[in-house]
Amino acid sequence: MELELPIREQLSAAIFSKSLRIKEVVNVNSPDCAESKTSSGECSDDEDEDDGEVGPPKTKQSMTNLLGVDAVTIATFVKFSHTLLDAIIQFILAIAFLTNLLGWVPVLWACTVPAILSPVNYLLAQQYSKAEDALMAASDRRMAVLSEMLQGIRQIKFDAQEDQWNRKVQTLRSNEIKKQGQVFQFDLSLIAVWSCGPICMSLIALATYFLANKSLSPSVAFTALSIFQSLSATLSNFPETISDLMNAKVAARRIEQYLDLPEYNNCHSDGEAIAFSQTTISWPSNTMEEDNSDFKMRNISLQFPLGELTVISGPAGAGKSLLLLATIGEADLLEGQIFFPQRQSPLAYNGPSNEWTIDTSIAFVPQNPWIENGTVRENILFGLPLNPERYRDVLHACCLEDDLNSMQDGDQTDLGANGVNLSGGQKWRVALARALYSPAGVLVLDDIFSAVDARVGHHLFEKALTGSLAEGRTRIVATHHTTLCWSEMKYYVVLENGRVSFAGKPENYCPDLCPSNAGSIQRIGNADSAAQQGHILVPVSNSLTAPQQNPSEEDVKGKAFYEAETRATGAVKLSIYSIYMQACGGYLYWIPIALSFGFTLVAELAIPYWVSVWTRDLANTQPDIEVNIHSVSDGLSARSDPQSADNRLWLYLGVYIGLFLMSILTEIVRYQLVFMASIRGSLAIFEKFLLRVLHAPLSFLDTTPVGQILNRFSADFSTLDSDLALDLPNMLHGVLMLLSVIIAALFISPLMVGFGFISLFLSWYIASLYVTAARDAKRIESNARSPIFEQFGSIIDGLVTIRAFDKVGQYMYRMYNAMDAHCQALWHLRLFNCWMMFRLNMIGALYVTMTAALIATIRGVDASVAGFALSFALQMSEVVAWVLSEYAEIELDFNAVERIVEYTQIETEHQDGMDAPAGWPTKGEIEANDLVVGYAPELPPVLRGLSFLIKSNEHVGIVGRTGSGKSSLTLALLRFLEARSGSLHIDGIDISRLRLSALRSKIAIIPQDPVIFSGTLRSVLDPSDQYTDSELLAALAKVHLRPSMDDEENSELEGTDEDCNNAALSLSSPISERGKNLSQGQRQLVCLAQALLSRPKILIMDEATSSIDMSTDALIQQTIRQEFRDSTLMVIAHRLSTVVDFDRIMVLGEGRIAEFDTPAALLRNEGGPFWTLVDKSGERDSLRRSILQGERQA
C-alpha cells in the first residue's frame, strides 16, 4: 500500500499533466486511420494482424483509459510485486532443504525441470504480453467509439441509428472479448506450466534418490513431498504475478508512448505587435513534416493593429479558424514567424474594471464554444474574482439579462457539460461574456454572430465588440457578417483557398462601403431604444432582477443540472448475484463448475492422504488408533514384501503423480469453465447495458454526465471482464481448501473441529466487519472516480480555451484535488484490508497453536496421520485469510456489477408500436390537434393546445423568441416528448401508434450544431453504402463542398494542385472525432449533403446554414428550395431572411401559435407578432422587399 497508492496517483497526475501540454490534434493522419475506420464500421472483424502495432493513445477516450485502466494495472502489480521476490527466496530455500535431505544429485536432476520449463514459460509470457497488448488496443477502440457515440447520442436518436450503433459497438465488443479469451487461455497455460513443475521435480527427485540409495524412508519421503507441495503452493501465485507483470509492462509502454507524444509549443516569437511574416501554418499534428497535413495556409504576411478591430472573412473551409489558432499560438508553424507581444504577469483584480486589461493576455471564443459543467456565473468568471459592476456590464453587453431572468436560478443556474441545456446562441454569448469579463487585451473571436438573429447581432456588435468593455483591446474576429462590422473595422483580411487574397484597410477593399456609407447600417441598430433588447420579442431591462442586481460571492448556487450519482447501501443484494449467474448461462451451467470443484476437493484430500499411506507402508507400521480410512493402507501393508519394494515405489509414485495430475486437470477445467461463464456473462450484460443507454430518454442522457456513463463502460466493465473472472474461482478454491482443512481435522479429533469452527466464526466476524466498511468505502471510491473522468473529459474538450486564457495551473489544481479525494477513499479501503488481515492472522496463529497442542496430547497418533492432519492445520491461518479476503474482493467486484445492473434497469423509451406503411410518408402532411406537451409530468406544459395543418410539400418557417416552443415542437414531432393530450398526425397516421424507429427514420433533421462522426467522408455521407461515388460527389457539389464538374475532371484535379487540395474534399478525406478537422460551416454542409442524398419527405432544419458565408448561403438556400420542392420543409429560423420567401410562417409564443399564415399576410397585420419581428429585425427594408417580391411571383 505504501507503494501502490503513490504510484497510482502520481501516474494519474503525470497523465493529466501531459494532457494539458499535448497538442490539440484535429487532423486525421494515416496512423490514426485504424481508429477512424473502426469508428465508422469499415474495418473487418478480424483485426489480429494490426492489433499489436497500434500507436500511442491519441483519442480522448484512449487517454481516459490510461487513467482508468493502465495506471491501475501498474499500481496493482506493484502491490503484489513482492510475491516475485518471495517466490524466488522460497524456491532457493526449498532447494537448499531438499539438497540437505536428498543430496545434490537428485536435486540437480529435479532442477532440469525448471530449466526446461523456463523457455516455455518465457514464450508463453511473451504471447500473453502480446495478447494483453491486443486486448488493450481493442478496449481503446471500443471506448473511443463509445465516447463518440455518447457525445453524439442526440443525433443518433434523431436519425434512429440506435441499431446501427449497437451493431458497431457490439462488433468491437466481440473482438475485445475474443482478445480477453486469448488472454485467459495464456493465463491458464501459465498456471498449468507452473503447477506441473513441482510435480515433475518431486517425481524425478524421489525416483533418483531411490535408484541411488535403494531405499526411501517415510521421514525422507514425507518431508520431501511436503517441501515440494509447499513449493507448489508458493509457485501457484507465480503465474498470476507474471501475468500482472506482463500487464504492467504493456500499460507502462502505452503510458510511455503517450508521454512521448509531441507537446504543445507556442509558435509565437516576441514582438511589438501581432504579425505574421512569410508564414506557412497547418493544423496541429503529431509530426512536424512538411506534408503532415492536407490543408495549409501559405505565405501569410499580416499585421493586426493593436487596440483595434480586425475582421477575417472567407468562404467555409478557407482557413479562418486555422488563422485564429495560429494567432493564439496553437497551430503548427512550418515556415516563417508569428510575432506576439510577450505576456505579462496578471494584475490585481480589486481595482476599477477599466484597469483590468492586460495588453498581452488572450481570450478566445472558439467556433464551438466550450461550456463546462458549472453555473452561468462560474463559466463567465472563469476563476476570476467577482467585480459586480463589471459583471453587470458584461451581462448587458452580451444580451444575457433576459436569459437569466427566464432561468429559475438566474446566473446560479447549473449548466450541463458543453452547455447542453443552453441554445446555440446562449452558448456563444456565455463564451463571449467570459472573454469580455477577462482582463485579456487580445480578444480572438470565431464566428460569434452566426447563432443569433440580426437584432441581437447588432447589440453584440455595439455593446460587446465595440462598446466600452472592448475599448483599447485588440479584437480579431472571424465572421461572415462583414457588413455589420464594416463601420468600425480597421483591418480587413479576406481568405480564399488557404491564402490571403486581401489584407489591409477595408476602404481599400471596397470603397463603396466606406464608414460614411456604412452609417446607414449603424443607424439600423440605433433606430429605437429596443436596440438594447436581448431577444427580438421581449425588450431587455437595463438592470438585472433582484438576485442579480448586486451579485455577490455568497449567492446560493442553484439546483444542480446533473443528478448526483447514486450510491447503494448495505450488502450487495442477492438479486445482483442472481442476475450475474443468469447472464453467465443460467443456474444449470454452474452444475459442471460445481462438479469440477468437487473433484478438486477430492484431489486436495487424496494427495496428502496417499502420502501418509505410502510412508506408513514403507516403514511397515500400523496405526494404533482405529480410523476407517486406514483400511486401504492396512491391506497394502499386509502384502509388504521386500522383493516388491521397487514395484510398490513406482505404484505409490504413479498414484501420487496421477492424483496430482488429476488435481491440475480439474483446476484447469474449473478455470476454463469459469472463464467461459465470465465471458458469456460479460457479453450478455454489456449488450443489455448498451441497449438501455441507446434507448434511454433524452431526459436521462442530458442530465447524466458522459464521464459517469463512461466510468461504468470502462472501469466497471474492466472489473467484470477480468477481475471477477479470476477472483471468483480463487474464492471458490479457497472454500474447498477450507473444507479440506476441516475434513483433515476430523481424522484426529472432533475437538479439533470444534476449535476450527470457533476460529472460523471469529474470522468470519472480523471479515464481516471489514466487508461492511469496505463495501461502502468501495462505493465511495467508485463515486469519487467519476468526477475525475468527467473533469478530464471536459478539460480535454476545452483544452485550447484553457491554454488561451492561461488557466492551466487553475485546472491542474482542480484535477489534483479530485485525485486527492479519490486517493483518500482508496487509502481507507486499503487500511480496512490491513486491519482485517492482521486480525485474521492472529486468529489463525492461535488456531494452529491449539491444533499442535491437541495432537501432542493425544496418545498413539500415527506419525504419518499426525503429519497429514497437521500439514492442513498449519494452512488454517493462510486459508481462512485467503478465503475471507477473496470473499471481500468478490463483494467489491460485485459492486461494479451492481453499478452496471443499475443502468440496465433505467427507464427506456417505448419501443413498441406498429410499423409504418410501405413508402410512408407519401405526402408529408403534418396535422396537430390541440397538442399539449411537457418535459416531465410535474412540470408545466411547453406546448399548449397547438392545432395546425402543414400541407404536402409546403415550406414553413418557425420563428419565435427563446422558450417559445420551437425546439419542443421538433421534439414532439420525433416523439422525444410524448403528447399529454391531443395528437400529431403525419399523412393521417397518429404518430403515437408508430414504432419510434419507424417514425424517426422517415424524418430528417439538421441541427444548428451538427454532429459528424469519425471515418471517411464517404462513410459519413453514406454509412449504409447505398449510393455510388458519382451520387456522393454530386451531393457535395450541390452544397459547394466540391467544384461542380464531372467525375473525370475531379479525378484529374485531385492531388495536382495545392490550392485545389486545400479547397476540395474528396470521398476518402478522413474525418476526425466529431468532425473537428472540419469547420462549423463545412459540418453543416456535410449534413445538408446527407439530406440531399436521402431526400426525406419531411425535413426539419434548425438554422442549419448559420455558419456559412453570405454568398454561399444564398446559393445553398436556392439549392434547398429547388432540391426539396417535393418535400415538406420546416425551418426553425433565427434569421428571418432565410424563411421570408417560404409558403407560410408559424410564429410561436409561450407554447402557443401566435400567427400562422403567408409572410405577406402576416406583414399586412400591422402591429402583429411577425410585423414586430420584421420591424425590429435590423433588416426591415430588405425583408419587406423580399416578401413583396415573393408575393408578386406567387
Commentary on this structure:
This protein is an alpha/beta fold. A six-stranded mixed beta sheet has the order 6-9-10-4-11-12, with helices on both faces. Helix 23 (590-618) packs antiparallel against helix 25 (645-694) and helix 27 packs antiparallel against helix 32. The model is unreliable at 29-54, 514-549, 621-640 and 1046-1063 (pLDDT under 50). Helices cover 57% and strands 11% of the residues. Strand 21 (1098-1102), helix 40 (1110-1123) and strand 22 form a beta-alpha-beta unit. Among the domains are: 1-23 and 55-263, Up-down Bundle (ABC transporter transmembrane region fold); 583-619 and 646-748 and 862-909, ABC transporter type 1, transmembrane domain (ABC transporter transmembrane region fold), CATH 1.20.1560.10; 750-794 and 803-857, no CATH class; 926-1044 and 1066-1157, Rossmann fold.
The N- to C-terminal Cα distance equals: 81 Å
Estimate percent helicity. 55-70%
- State the CATH architecture of the domain at 1-23 and 55-263: Up-down Bundle
Q: What share of residues are in beta strands?
A: 5-15%
- Can you summarize the main beta sheet? 6 strands, mixed
Put simply, the count of helices is 43
- Overall, the morphology is elongated
What is CATH's topology name of the domain at 1-23 and 55-263?
Answer: ABC transporter transmembrane region fold
**What strand order characterises the main sheet?**
6-9-10-4-11-12
- The average pLDDT is 78
Q: Please, what is the CATH homologous superfamily of the domain at 1-23 and 55-263? A: ABC transporter type 1, transmembrane domain
The structure class reads: alpha/beta
Text of the CATH class of the domain at 1-23 and 55-263: Mainly Alpha
